Structures are given as C-alpha cells and as structure tokens.
From TrEMBL:
PANTHER family: SODIUM_GLUCOSE COTRANSPORTER 4, SOLUTE CARRIER FAMILY 5. GO terms for cellular component: plasma membrane. The chain crosses the membrane at residues 21-41, 61-82, 94-115, 136-161, 167-186, 198-218, 253-273, 303-321, 352-379, 400-422, 428-450, 457-476, 488-511, 548-565. InterPro entries: Na/Glc_symporter_sf, Na/solute_symporter. Belongs to the sodium:solute symporter (SSF) (TC 2.A.21) family. The lineage of its organism: Bacteria, Bacillati, Actinomycetota, Actinomycetes, Micrococcales. It is found in: Membrane. It holds the Pfam family SSF. PROSITE patterns: NA_SOLUT_SYMP_3 (PS50283). It is a multi-pass membrane protein. This is Sodium/solute symporter. GO terms for molecular function: D-glucose:sodium symporter activity. It comes from Arsenicicoccus cauae. Keywords: Membrane, Transmembrane, Transmembrane helix.
Length: 566
C-alpha cells in the first residue's frame, strides 16, 4: 500500500491548480446553493422523523436521484477513476455486475419489507427479526463503517481544497467538514437528499465535458483504443471479461466465477440491499411503490456512470505524464487516486475547470453527507434510544441526532488519516464492505426466506462471518499466508464471510428455538400476505410506472451493455 500524496504537490508546477476568478466564482455560487438548501430544509424539520427520514414524504424521482448521488462520492469518482486508470474496462463490473442486479433486487424484493414494516433503519429491522443480539452487532458495525467511509469522502474533499488553495491538509479537512456539517445539522435528511439531487446534475455537468475533451485530446475513440493497446496492460484493458486484472486470478474461468460470485453476488447484494446509507433514501419515499422504484429509477443513470468516471481514468493513464510514468513503473510521487485531478489540470480550460472542481466537491459532499445522515439515524434510534436513554420526548432524540452529526463529522476528520494509507481507495472500501456488508447480507437473506432461523443464529452468524473475513485479510496482508493481486482479496474475504455466516446460522438455528410464526408477519416472506407488500392502487399504474416492468427494462439494458463491452 502506498500513502496518498497531497494533490497540491501534483497539480501544477507551482503546486496549485491554475484556477482564475471565474472558477472561484462558480465554486462560491455552488456553496451558496448548498448552504441555502440546508437553511430552507430546516423549516420542514419539526420531529425526529422529519430530521432522519424526511417525514416519508418524497416522490420516487427525487429519492431515486438521491439514491445514486449518495453513492456518487469517493467510491465512484476517485476510486473508480483510479481503478480505471490502473486496470481499464474490467472496472465496469463494479457497475454492471456489482450494482445494477442488486439494486433491482432491492427494489423488487426487499424494499416492501423495509418500508412496509415501518422500521426507521436497517438495524431496527434486525431488531424485529432477530432480537437485541443481532441488532446491537449490526448497529455498532454499521456505525463504525460509516465513520470510516466518511473519512474517505472527507479526505478527498479536503485534497481538492488543498490543490485549489494550497492550504495545509489539516486546514482543508476542517473547512470541508464544517461545510457538510452545516447543511446536515440544519436540515437533516431532507437537506441531504435535495442537495444530492442538485449534486447529481452538477457532477454530470462537470464530468461529461472532461470525458469528451479528454477523448478528443487522444484522437477520439480510435486514438484512445490505440493508445490503451500500446500502454502497459495492453488490449485486455479494453474488454470487461474475463477481468483477471480486477479479480486477481490467473485463470479466466476462476476470474469470471470470482467476479460473479464475489463481486456480483456477495459484495454487491451485501452492499446495496442492506446498506442503510442507500436504503434510507428509499425509506424517505411517500409510498411502498415509490420506495420500490427508488433503486430501480437509480439503476438507469447508474449504468451509464462508467462512461464519465472510468473512461476519464483510462484517458489519464495514456495522456497525463505522471500517471503514464506510474503505470510504466517509473519514479513518480503520483498515485492512481490523482488521475482525475491531474486530467482536469491538463485538459480543462478556465470556467470548465471551476465547474469540474465544483462537481468533485459535490460528489464528496454527497458521499460524506450520506454517511453522516445514516450514522446519526442509527446512533440516535438504534443505539442511544434503544440501549442508553429510553422513553424520552421526540425533541430529545432530535437533539441527540444533531449532536451525533457534529460528533461524527469530527471523528471523520481523524478517520480520514486511515484512508490516506491506501493508494487506491477502492481497495480500502471493498475491504470494509467485505468485513461488514457480506455477512450482514447472508443473515438478512437467510432470515427473510427461512422462518426457522433463530435470534441466536442472527448474531452468531454475523460475528462469525465478520471475524472470518478479518482473519483471512490479516493472514494475507500480515501473515504472509498467500498473496492476491487486484481486488481478489476483497472478493475472497467477502465470499468467506458470506459462506461462514450461512453455515454458522444454519447450524445454530437447528440447535436453538425459533420465534413464533405469528411474530414474523412483515419480516419473513412466507409469513407475509402479498397485500402487505404493495400499495392498493399499484396494479392500476401504467406499465413502466410499476416496479417490476421497470426493473425488467433496466435488466435488459445492462445485459446489452455487458454484451457490447465484453
């Protein structure tokens, strides 16, 4: 692992991005809009449900765009462009295999349970299904993960400020944290969601010109493919399958199996179907149908994001001097995480540079705001209210939520230093997902479709799965037991966590007493009548306004994309 190098040291000869007053004006206007939305949303917050879940009042198109924008942070922008620069088009699998199928499954199958049960968080669903043991394990692990991931977004947000203004990184971290803290503390989830919708359009407006200008600089699509073919890694970077550079397996067959099972099933379904950061946006919808359509609507823009995130990383690898040197094994202080920022420096004129910087700031703020807003909900409802101080007035928990927001932002300043130890943030994030999300998905999916699974099995499987993933990772990284290139270790750790969780859960369930069947209504598929999972008027909606046909269309499109770029 290589440490992140301050972007200011890389951005230009004088260590700064060469921005003009036009660029600064665009950035200032963007920040005014962000803070203005936070202040406006504050007037709508009169209860904890307003603060944490937007009063369950938002339409599907708003929550659908927020669903994607909340995920369009460090993972998508810097992490995916870095992996694209390093590996090429196999990175597309993070979207077409590692996101879309799971998002559609969430909308069609799982959201009716989340929304219909009226739980306020994913850990609260665990409490109702499995009891306090599994609930406490899930709530603590989720809260910890959000603090660590928020540090990623904050670190990269601070690096943009550092590159732009030349401030020391610790100053940039604090300034970036205060901006995000301001609008979440004032307006809660509504402020986060409406800002995420704004940020989605700003991000697209920023990255689309970067992609088009970058491709023009390398001679269009033909020149791009020629340069990539001639670069280290060769023509394999131009096809997504079998993706050996990504999986770390030498065998093409094992690579395909690893990507489909490790990424496409365990990591992907574990992240998208149980991660409260995403599910929280759908829970803010105004009906079960809107909640189901939230991730499905999000799937349509999601499948085209690779073309404005991964392709610029690949362009940087054949156009930007420092990244070309890095890829060729030469001596440079740059890391792959710098690919997008350096491409912006080299190809964008003033004005567009300011828009691009605003887009990156928007992405990192969206990601961090999503982490913080999910953390404050879980901390307030699932930890503080459930285990520390019970039966207080609603205003008390609203105040706790705002204080938790402040505390989480401060802690994220320190967790940013942990993320700084990884040269490619995707390695860091996929490792965290393998530890926390993969075993959680195993527990969820087994408990949702097998009524015999017991409360004891719920927490025992989670603990066993997480410990096994951490143990495998430690054995590889520090024990020298084996070594895997690419993202193969993350895939293997996640798969191990999933299998161990399932095995332990089944064994423990057969040895312990299950909950009464009547207590599983709305929590287990076989025990829940269909009318509890749909709105009464859903059947009268136009065909593509219904969740299942809309999901079918998205699935067809992503299969076509996988075929074209195979």
């Amino acid at each position: 692992m290589t440490a992140l190098v301050p972007a200011a040291a890389l951005a230009a000869k004088d260590t700064l991005i060469d921005a003009t007053w036009v660029d600064y004006l665009l950035i200032a206007l963007y920040f005014l809009f962000v803070l203005g939305i936070g202040f406006a949303a504050r007037r709508q917050v009169s209860s904890s449900i307003d603060f944490f879940l937007s009063g369950r009042s938002l339409p599907a198109w708003v929550t659908g765009l927020a669903f994607i924008s909340a995920n369009l942070g460090a993972v998508e922008i810097m992490g995916m462009s870095a992996t694209g620069a390093e590996m090429g088009m196999p990175t597309f699998h993070y979207f077409w295999i590692g996101a879309i199928p799971a998002m559609l499954f969430l909308g069609v199958v799982m959201m009716p349970f989340y929304y219909g049960s009226k739980v306020r968080s994913v850990p609260e669903f665990m409490l109702r299904r499995f009891g306090p043991g599994a609930h406490l394990v899930n709530a603590i692990s989720f809260a910890l993960a959000q603090l660590l991931i928020a540090g990623v977004n904050l670190l990269l947000l601070a690096r943009i400020v550092e590159a732009l203004l030349g401030w020391p990184q610790w100053v940039s971290l604090i300034v970036a944290a205060v901006i995000v803290l301001s609008y979440i503390t004032f307006g809660g989830l509504s402020a986060a969601i409406y800002n995420e919708v704004l940020q989605f359009f700003v991000i697209v407006a920023a990255l689309l010109p970067l992609t088009l200008i970058g491709l023009h600089r390398v001679g269009g699509w033909g020149g791009f493919t020629e340069r990539v073919t001639a670069s280290p890694g060769g023509a394999e970077q131009l096809s997504s399958w079998p993706g050996q550079a990504l999986s770390g397996f030498d065998s093409p067959i094992l690579s395909v199996v690893g990507i489909i099972f490790g990424l496409g099933f365990v990591l992907s379904f574990g992240y998208w179907t149980t991660n409260f950061v995403e599910v929280q946006r759908a829970m803010a919808s105004n009906s079960i149908t809107a909640a189901r359509k939230t991730p499905i609507i999000g799937a349509f823009p999601k499948m085209f994001i690779p073309f404005i995130v991964i392709l610029p990383g690949m362009v940087a690898a054949v156009l930007v001097g420092e990244i070309k040197t890095l890829k060729g094994g030469g001596d440079t202080t740059a890391t792959y995480n710098d690919a997008l920022l350096l491409l912006m420096r080299d190809v964008l004129p003033n004005g567009l540079l300011g828009l691009a910087i605003a887009g990156l700031l928007a992405a990192f703020m969206a990601g961090m705001a999503a982490n913080i807003s999910a953390f404050n909900t879980v901390f307030s409802y699932d930890l503080w209210q459930e285990y520390v101080v019970k039966d207080k007035p609603d205003e008390y928990y609203l105040r706790v939520g705002r204080l938790a927001t402040v505390a989480a932002t401060i802690i994220a300043v320190f967790t940013a230093s942990i993320a700084g130890q990884f040269g490619n943030v995707m390695e860091y994030l996929q490792t965290l997902f393998g530890f926390f999300n993969a075993p959680l998905f195993a527990t969820f999916i087994l408990g949702m479709f097998w009524r015999r699974m017991t409360a004891t099995a719920g927490w025992a499987g989670l603990v066993a799965g997480t410990v096994s993933a951490i143990g495998l990772w430690y054995a590889s990284k520090f024990g020298g037991a084996f070594d895997m290139a690419g993202q193969g270790l993350a895939f293997l750790a996640a798969s191990t966590a999933f299998v161990v969780d399932i095995v332990v859960s089944v064994v423990v369930s057969l040895m312990t007493k299950p909950k009464p069947r009547e207590s599983l209504l709305g929590l287990v598929y076989s025990e829940t009548p269909k009318e509890h999972l749909t709105d009464a008027d859903a059947a009268a909606l136009p065909l593509l306004a219904r969740p299942v046909p809309l999901a079918g269309l998205a699935l067809v499109l992503v299969i076509i994309l996988n075929t074209i770029f195979a």
